[in-house]
Amino acid sequence: MAKTAVTAERVGKLYRLGNTQDTLARTLADALMRSARGKDRKAQELWALDDVSFEVAEGEVIGIIGRNGAGKSTLLKLLSRLTEPTRGRITVEGKVGSLLEIGTGFHPELTGRDNIYLNGTILGMSRADVSRRFDEIVEFAEIDRFLDTPVKRYSSGMYVRLAFAVAAHLESEILIVDEVLAVGDVAFQRKCLGRMGQVANEGRTVLFVSHNLAAIKSLCTRALLLQDGKLVADGPVEDTVSCVRFGSPMTRASTSSGCFSGSRFASPASTRSASG
């Protein structure tokens, strides 16, 4: 039986909305006003994720889909340990290589070369280990002419090519990728999909967010569907993607219509039982 690589147990992430530039006096005044008008307090809060539970087995390739604002990127940030859940628990077994927003994990003043070694160190690799993979990373990223240029001078395409190459080639058991196919040309997108397929064939775990449903279908065997911060479906990728294509995947009616005939719907009870 495959080991569990990722477990999410009733995870919630709360963001408090407001102007982070407010002065202390303004903050205190607003707090007093919210206290006096208790009903307004909830308007200042957003649950980006709410009661999300699932498990990912070692070696699984999981697609995460949903409309903008559904909570996909927030979930990947939690899995990458870039932020902590407000409630619930996430357990990740193994080193994680992440490609989230362009620039995450890179120091803009350092060169491409230095950032490759920096990211290897963050993953707990020795300089010798990184050196063994260095040429492959540079070749994949196609940045050899700019290797000793600070990455703040890179174009967005160069930046994402290097970021993906580092995340996909360094020694991580779990690869987390958020919308890498939204940047770069078609040839690079195919290259990324090919590399993620290689990672999967090596028995490593992949979690992949994309609006490109064809890419999700070609790479993943299972998909999670998020809606308004909730996990509304978890099942075979064909069923999930087919339902999205039927035109109203994000409504309660569609999830009760049998569209996901092979999927496990993520009501609070089913998600808890799915995660043990």
Explain what you see.
The protein is α/β, with parallel strands linked by helices. Helix content is 38%, strand content 24%. It is built from 10 helices and 10 strands. The radius of gyration is 20 Å and the shape is globular. Mean pLDDT is 80; it is low at 247-276.
Task: Provide a compact summary of the structure.
The protein is an alpha/beta fold and 276 residues long. It has helices at residues 24-36, 72-79, 112-122, 127-141, 156-169, 186-201, 213-219, 237-245, 252-256, 268-274, and strands spanning 4-16, 45-57, 61-65, 87-92, 96-99, 174-178, 205-209, 222-227, 230-236, 264-265. The protein has a domain at 4-94 and 173-274: P-loop containing nucleotide triphosphate hydrolases (Rossmann fold, 3-Layer(aba) Sandwich).
Main structural class: alpha/beta
Query: Which homologous superfamily in CATH is the superfamily of the domain at 4-94 and 173-274?
Result: P-loop containing nucleotide triphosphate hydrolases
Largest sheet: 7 strands, mixed
**Compute the gyration radius: what is it?**
20 Å
Distance between the termini: 15 Å
Second rung of CATH, namely the architecture of the domain at 4-94 and 173-274: 3-Layer(aba) Sandwich
> Remind me, CATH topology of the domain at 4-94 and 173-274?
Rossmann fold
Number of helices: 10
Outline:
globular
Global mean pLDDT: 80
* Helix fraction by DSSP (H/I, runs of at least 4): 25-40%
Low-confidence parts: 247-276
- Under CATH at level 1, the class of the domain at 4-94 and 173-274 stands as Alpha Beta
Count the E strands. 10
Order of helices and strands: EHEEHEEHHHEHEHEEHHEH
Looking across the biggest beta sheet, what order are the strands in? 5-6-7-3-8-9-10
Oligomer: single chain
Query: What fraction of the residues are assigned to beta strands by DSSP?
Result: 15-25%
